[in-house]
Amino acid sequence: MARQRIPIGTFGDIYTAKLQSGNYRARTKFRDVDGHLRLVEASAETAKAAETKLKVKLAQRGRVSSRVGDLGPSSKFGDLVDVWLEDLDLDGELAPNTRALYERNMDKLVRPAFEGYTLREITVARVDRFLRSLAKNRSHSMAKQAKTVLSLALGLAVRYEAIERNPVAGVKRLKRSHTEARALTHAELEVVRTAAKGWRRQEGLSGPKPDGQLEAIIEVMIGSSARIGEVLALRKCDVDVTSTPATIRISGTIVSLKGKPTYRQPHPKSRASVRRLAVPSYTAEALRKRLVDVAGARPDGLIFETRNGTPLTTNNVRRRLREILKNTGLGWVTPHSFRRTVATTIERSAGADLAAKLLGHTSSDITKLHYIEKDENVSDRTAEILEELAPKET
Questions:
Q1: Of the candidates 17, 42, 69, which is a domain's last residue?
Q2: Residue 205 has what DSSP assignment?
Q3: Residue 394: its pLDDT value, please?
Q4: Which of 183, 238, 314, 380 has the fewest CB atoms nearer than 10 Å to its CB?
Q5: Whole-angstrom distance, CA of residue 130 vs CA of residue 43
């Protein structure tokens, strides 16, 4: 069987043989997108079933090879997206929730805008107008996420020589209207705590009473700066309340993928996010109470969990927090607000570098820009210094 006679994405003659086990095996050679011939086989109870099974495998393999091999300037954008998604799975480098986010952003934001175009028709001008319109009519965040996945997909097209350059590289930079970070005052924190303690504890309400987990979660967020997913991922073995001060180790996060059970991912958002923190007394006390409640669980059991013993979801905690703060005037507060409050408090006393390290950031620039509330107060020393410029007595 001469190699050059088999086009890329096709196969040669199929040979079927009976095995010692009594089953039949069908085999053939398939020419992959890299030009190499590879043996493909399938087994079944009959010769016909084995051949049918082999043809199904070849059809699936052929579709992938055909899409990759045939990508060119006249290919549809949808064909590129299919290849790009397969390429993401081939690398296996993305966390499952990031992979799901990329596909969702591509399907919801980008694909509808470009599915009618071929790759050669996706110009810098078209991409630029699309992103700026998305930022204006929807949000800067959506435009930024759309830009990320569009750039990744078109970057793959460049690597496969379907287009010469990535048009996303030439678009105008998306400018974001800067919003100042807002931290809670001590009085506002007390309002949050009071609202959480009183939520659904009035007489006459039907259903089970709150189990106190939300209050403990809030105290851990206030005393650690940890993200909500990181707090919910804390295990018994991550907490040490016997030391002074007590410590917790951030080493995972909670992930909820569409159509799949919520689970604990064994690493947080980034490598810098893995950290051991000393926590204040009020956080330690909240964790002690939870440890009593989960005393019978395994060392790697979660500190916070549902009544069925499954992980709490971050969306559930956010929703519950919105509900308890509905009539407090603090409707703007989210779990991330506690993170900004911690960053601001640490920065005021010990500087932005320590705040960044506590939050698990690789640079204090991110912490300063997004997490630390601006301090409008200027040191009183300026008044003392400027006394030198007082008018002379006459």
A1: 69
A2: -
A3: 60
A4: 380
A5: 50
